[in-house]
Amino acid sequence: MRRRTLMMACLLAVVGCGEEFQREEAVPIDKLPPAALKAAQSKLPGVKFDTAWKVKAEGGKEGFEIRGKTKDGKIRDAQVTATGEVLEVD
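The structure corresponding to this sequence follows.
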């Protein structure tokens, strides 16, 4: 039983257990819907966003993955819909 639990934990670590997002196409930051960018900025204050992609989540929701860097160089991103609903923050 213990071995099975360990194997399942390793499998989840390799495969992942979060919602899967598929990138479709790059979108210039200045072409993002204002609500999407505002939602990402509110969840990740102080991040300078520089890259975005259209994404489709596993549940079928369409939105954007918006990525940027903090002042100390850490990469952060948020997945949001065009209407500003936050799907995930990394």
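Residues 8 and 14 are 10 Å apart (CA to CA).
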